[in-house]
C-alpha cells in the first residue's frame, strides 16, 4: 500500500511535466492524507483541514444538488461535469505554471457555479463562464484565498451580461419541457403576481438549478453555519435586512417592492445567503464588517430587484459587496483601533 | 424638478458612471488607485475642479459662444478654462486652505490633462442640459469617479496583503481586471436611473 | 525691468501670432467643411423622412424624390413633413435607456395608423437595445395603430393592432422607445386636432 | 546604408522606443480612456488612431519648429491651443466625410485633446528635439497607440459582433458576446493584452 | 461566594483526550544524579555557593545571589557536586550544578535540611519571618513575576501588591489534574497557604479561580473559607489559555496587563494552586523547593498519571520505565501548545515544571481521513462528531494552504487581536505604525491561532516574527499608557 504511494511519488517527481506533478501531489494528498508533523510549538493541531473545510460546503450543497437532478434530470450532472472539467483545467494549468499546489476551494466553486445557472443553459456557455470566473475571478489574483470577488459569481455575472438571451429568457419549471421566461421574481416585476409559498419552498418554480428547492437550501445552510464553516453573521443579517427592508418598502411601493417572505423565498436569496456570502475569502475580516456587509447586501438586493432592469439582485449585490468589503474593513479597523497618540 | 435632478445625480454615480461606463479619467485612475490616500486626495481634487469647470463652462458656451456663433472653438475655450480653473483653485487653496493644499495639492496639476474634466463639459453641451442640471451632473460624475477609485484603491490595499499576482499582471493589469469586474457589477443598476 | 517688459511683449506677440494662425486655419477649415456637414445633416433628415414614409430613393434621387412627395410645414412649434396622400412624418426624440433616441415617425393622422418609422440616432447597447434600430424590429410597427396608444407585450405575444413585441433581454429599451412614440404622437395629435 | 548602421542611429532608437519599449499604453499607462472607449469596433479604432497620429504629427512639427520661440511661461497653454485646434480640424473632417464614424466616436474625438500621450510627447520630446526626430517620435508613438487600439478592437469586434470591419467572420451559429461591445469587455481585453505584452517584455512593474 | 465569570472573548476548551493523567500521584525513585539549573522560575541566574567536589545535603542552598532579583536554588538530593557547567533547558542555555546522589539516599523529612525558623504553628510567626521562609525556600520564584518579599525576589515590594490571584484551571490538553494536585486532605493547607500569602502581602486581597469543571472542589473550598478570610472564590471556564495571567487578570479584575509588562507591574501576584501548597510546606514544614508534582500524560506513557519528582532529575531517567516506546513519541515539556520538545534526554525537571507529555509522531492518518466522521478528532469547528475520547498527536492534520480568512484564529485569540490580518502584514514585510496600531504587541504567544488554523499556517510564529522585526525596526514593544508612571517595579 505504501509502496504504491512511493511509486506514485516517484512517478510524480520523475515526470518532467510540471502539470503532472501538481496533479499527482493533489491525488496523493487526497488519498493518503497529511503526513507532515508539527515543527515545534504548538505540537498539536486541529484536525480540520482545508479539504474537509471545503467538503463541508459541498455536503451542505448536496440536498439542493440532488433536488436539481431530480427536477431536471441527468443533464444537470452533465452541466456540473463540464463546470468541473473546464474550470479544473484553468486551476491545474495555473498550479502547474506557477508551481503552487492545487487548492481544494475550486471544488466548491465548480459546484456552486452550475447551480446558479438556468437548467437549459448551453454547455459551451457553462464552460465560458467557469473559465472566465476562475481566470479573472481568482487566478489573476494569485489563486484560492487571494481573490477579491466570488469566482463563481464573476463567471455567472460575465455570462449574464454577455449572453442575455440564453441566460435570462429560457427558464424551465421542474418536471417540464416547456420553456418559459417567467421566474417568480419576473412575474412579480411584470404583474405583481405572487407565486404560492408552498411552490417556492418545494421548488416547483422556474429558476436556476440550485436556487429553487428552498427546503434543501435551508437544511444545508444551517448545517454549514452549525459546523462553523460558514460564519453566521452575514447570512443572518443579509436575510434579515432583506426581510425588514421589503417589509417597509412593500408598504410604500407595493407595485415595485415585493412582500418580505416572497423576497426571501423567491430567487436565489437563500442560496446566496447560505452558500455565497459565507465564502470566507471574499467576505470582510471583521465581525462588525460582516454585519455591515450583510445589511448593505440586503439593501442592494432590494434596490436592484425592485428598481433596475434585472431580477438578479442577489448576484449583483454580492459582487458589489465583495468590492466594498475591503473598504468596510478599512473603516471598521480605523474605528476599532484608535490611532496611536503621538507621545 | 428636484426628482429629476436627483435622478441625474444617481445616474451619474451608478448607471452612467464616468469611469465605469464611459471609461474616462482612466490614466490617473490607474496610477493613483494603488493607495487609499492618493485615491481620495485625487478624488477630492477632481470633485472641485470638475464641478467648478462645469459652473464656468456652461455660461461661457451658452451665453457667449452660442450668441456670437463661435461654437466652433469651444474645445479651445474649454481646455483653457480648465487650465485656468486648476491654477485658480491651486492659488486659492494655497492662500486660504494650506492644509488642504498639502493634502491634495500635488494632484491638481494632474487634472489639467485629465480627459474626464473636459468630457464632463462636452457632455453638458452635447446633452443640452440646463444650468442646474449641468452642475448636478458634473458633481455627480465626479462623485461617481471618487466612488469607483476609492473602491478600487481599497481593494488594492487589501491585495498588498493577500495577493500573489502574476508578475505581468501587477499594476495596471490587475487594476483593469478589478475595474472591469466592478463595471460588470455596476451594470446591475441598469434602469435604476436615467440620464 | 527692461528684460521682463521685453519678455511680456514677446509673449503677447507670440500668442497673437499663434492665435491668428490657428483662428484663420480653423476658419478656413470650417468654411470648407461647413456646406458638407450641413448637407450631411440634410441628407440624414431627408432620408429619415423618406424611409419612414417608405418612399424608395437612391442617393442621387434623394432631393428630387423629397421635393416631389413631401412638403415641409409647421404645426405649433413643430416641423412636420406632409405627403400628398395625407400621411405625415413627425420627427421625434426622447431618452432611451442609455442616451437619446432620435428618428422620424410616419402616420396617418386620421386613422392613427403607422405608415412606417426610422431611427436616425440611438446609443443603446449594440446587439441588445441596439436591435430597436434594426429593420426587423421596426417592421412590426407598420400598420399598427395608436388606439389610443401603443402597448408593449412580451416578445411573440403582440396580437392586437396596438400591440408591439418587446425585445427579450432589452425590455427596457423597447419600453423607452414605445413610450417616446406614444408621447410624441399624442403631442402631435393634440396640435393636429387644434388646427383642424 | 546597411541595416546594421540604421540600427545604431538615433532614429532607430526613437522609433523602437515609441513602438515598443516605452509603449505609451502598456508601459506608461497613458491615453487609455479613448483606447478603452472606442475600441469596440475596428473601424472606430482605426479612425481614432488616424486622428491621433494626425494631431500628434502636426503638433510635433509645429512645436519642434517653434521650440525656441515659445516662451516658457505660456508653453503649456500654447501646446493646448495647438492640440485643440488640430483636434477641431479632425472633428470637422470626420463630420464632413465620415459622418457615421463621427457619430460613433461622439465626444471621444474631442477628448484627443486631453489624451495624455500627445501632451506627454509634446512636453517630453518635441520641445527638445529637431523636426525630423520629433516627427519620427510622434509617428511611432501614434502608430503604437493605433496598433494597440486595433488589436483590442479586433478581439472585441469579433467576439462582440462576430464581424471584422463590418464583415461577418464567424459561423452562422455564433452568439455575440454582448459584453465585449460594452465597457467591461474593454477592461478585460486590455488587461489580457497588457499581461501578454508585459510578460513578453519580461517587464516587472515597479 | 462562588461566581461564574466567562471571558467575553477568545480561548478554546480542550477536553476529552486520550492519555489524560489519572488523578493519582506516585513517588518517583531516587535518581542517580540530578542537574540543578541556576535559574529556575522567575529571576536572574544565581551564583553557585558550592564548589565541585563538595558534598551537599538535600535541601541545602547551592546557588544564591541576594544582589539581583532572584531566589535561591537547592540541592534536591544528598551527594557530591561533580560538575558546574552550561546545559540546555527547554531551549535555554544556562549554568547548572550536577550532583551525584549518595548511595542509600532516601527522600524523607529526616534526610532533608529543613528551613530554620519554620513552624507548624505559623500564626505565631511574624510576616518578616514568613517572607524569609518563602524566599529561602525558593518558592518565591514560582510566580511569573516572583512573590515579593523583603528580599529581592520580585521587582516590587510586598506592600505594593494589591491582589493575589490563585489559579486552578485545567486549560491545557491533558492538563495536570486538580484532584491530584489538591486532594481533599490538603484543602486546609491550601487555604492556610493563601492566608500566609496575605500575611506577607498585607495590602493584598485574595482571589481563587477554579475551573468550572470542578464544581465539587469549588463547593468544598467555599465551605472551608471563613468570612473573616476575605478570600474570594470564583469559577472560571477552563478555556486555554485562561490560566495565563495576561488573560486571567483582565477576566478577574477587569483591567488589562499592559503589553510588554507583567501582572506584578500592576500589583497583582498570580500563583498556581501547587505554588500555594509549596508556600504552606515551606512555612509550616520548612520544606524548600526540591520536589514537584508533575503530570506524565499522553498515549506514550503506559500509565498516564501524576508523579512527585525531585527537581533536577533528567527526563530520560524519569521516563525510561514509563514510556511505551521512545522513538514513536514526542516528549514535550509543560504544554503541548507552547512547550518545548525534549531533544536530549539529559534535560532536567525544574521547580516550575508542570508536566511531561508523550504523544505519537503520527505520519499516516488513514486513507481519505478528511472524509471520515472523525469520532476521535478534536476541532474548534464543529465539523467532526467526537463521540469518544479524542486522539492527540503531532500530525499537522492537513497540508499548508493559503489563508482563507476563515477568522478562526481571530475568534480564539485570547488577546483580542486579529492574527488573521496581522500575519499577512508579516508575510509581506509591511512593518509600520499600522501594526502598532493594530496591537501586534498584545500577542501573548499562546499559539492557539496556529492550533486552530485549517490552512495549517504557522500564524503564531509569524506573529512572533512580526514582533521581533517590529522591535528591530525601532518600534517599541512596550505599551505607552497613561498609567505608565503608575506601573510598579518599573524604572
Ligand atoms: C444560524 C445561527 C445564528 C446565530 N445567531 C447568533 C446571534 O444572532 N447572536 C449570537 O450571539 N450568536 C449567534 N449564533 C451562535 C454563534 O455561532 C456562536 O455564539 C458563536 O460561535 C460565538 O462566537 P463569538 O463569540 O466569536 O462571537 C448563531 C449561530 C447560528 C448557527
Ligand atoms: C438558528 C440558530 C440560532 C442560534 N442563535 C444563537 C444565539 O443567538 N446565540 C447563541 O449563543 N447560540 C445560538 N445558536 C446556537 C449555536 O449555534 C451553538 O450553540 C454554537 O454553535 C455554539 O457556540 P459556542 O460554543 O460559542 O457557544 C443558534 C443556533 C441556531 C441553529
Ligand atoms: C451591458 C448591458 C447593456 C444593456 N443594454 C440594454 C439596452 O440597450 N437596452 C435594454 O433594454 N436593456 C439593456 N440592458 C438591460 C438588460 O438586458 C436587462 O436584462 C433587461 O433590460 C431586462 O429586460 P428583460 O426582461 O427583457 O430581460 C443592458 C444590460 C447590460 C448589462
Ligand atoms: C462556506 C463556503 C462558501 C463558499 N462559497 C463559494 C462561492 O460562493 N463561490 C466560490 O467560487 N467559491 C466558494 N467557496 C470556495 C472557496 O472559498 C473559493 O474557491 C474561494 O473564493 C477561492 O479563493 C466557498 C467555500 C466555503 C467554505
Ligand atoms: S499566539 Fe498571539 S495572536 Fe495567536 S492566538 Fe495567541 S495571542 Fe492571539
Ligand atoms: S485560521 Fe488560518 S486560514 Fe483561518 S483566518 Fe486564521 S490564518 Fe487564515
Ligand atoms: S517578541 Fe521580543 S519584544 Fe516581543 S514580547 Fe517577546 S520578547 Fe518582548
Ligand atoms: S521601563 Fe521600558 S523596559 Fe522597563 S518595564 Fe517599562 S517598558 Fe519595560
Ligand atoms: S486618456 Fe483619459 S485620463 Fe489620460
Written description of the protein model:
The complex is a heteropentamer of chains A (343), B (195), C (196), D (206) and E (491). Chain A is mainly alpha-helical and 343 residues long. Chain A has helices at residues 2-14, 18-32, 50-72, 75-98, 105-115, 123-137, 151-162, 164-168, 184-191, 197-202, 214-226, 233-252, 260-265, 269-276, 287-307, 313-336, and strands spanning 171-172, 179-180. In chain A, strand 1 and strand 2 (179-180) form a beta hairpin. Chain B is mostly helical. Helices cover 76% and strands 0% of the residues of chain B. Chain B starts with a helix and ends in a 9-residue tail after the last helix. Chain D has 206 residues and is mostly helical. Chain D has a two-stranded antiparallel ribbon with strand order 1-2. The termini of chain D are far apart. In chain D, helix 5 crosses helix 6 (99-105), helix 5 (75-97) packs across helix 7 and helix 7 packs antiparallel against helix 8 (131-161). Chains A and E meet through helix 2 and helix 3 of A and helix 10 and helix 11 of E. One iron/sulfur cluster binds next to helix 8 and helix 9 of chain E.
Give the structure's gist in a few sentences.
The complex is a heteropentamer of chains A (343), B (195), C (196), D (206) and E (491). Chain A is mostly helical. Chain A is 65% helix and 1% strand.
Structural topology:
The complex is a heteropentamer of chains A (343), B (195), C (196), D (206) and E (491).
Chain A: H1 2-14, H2 18-32, H3 50-72, H4 75-98, H5 105-115, H6 123-137, H7 151-162, H8 164-168, E1 171-172, E2 179-180, H9 184-191, H10 197-202, H11 214-226, H12 233-252, H13 260-265, H14 269-276, H15 287-307, H16 313-336
Chain C: H1 2-53, H2 62-69, E1 70-75, E2 78-83, E3 88-95, E4 100-108, E5 113-121, H3 135-138, E6 151-153, E7 163-165, H4 171-195
Parallel strand pairs in C: 6-7
Antiparallel strand pairs in C: 1-2, 2-3, 3-4, 4-5
Helix pairs in contact in C: 1-2
Chain D: H1 3-8, H2 10-21, H3 32-37, H4 42-66, H5 75-97, H6 99-105, H7 116-126, H8 131-161, E1 163-164, E2 167-168, H9 183-200
Antiparallel strand pairs in D: 1-2
Helix pairs in contact in D: 2-8, 4-5, 4-7, 4-8, 5-6, 5-7, 7-8
The structure holds flavin mononucleotide (3 copies), riboflavin (RBF), iron/sulfur cluster (SF4) (4 copies) and FE2/S2 (inorganic) cluster (FES).
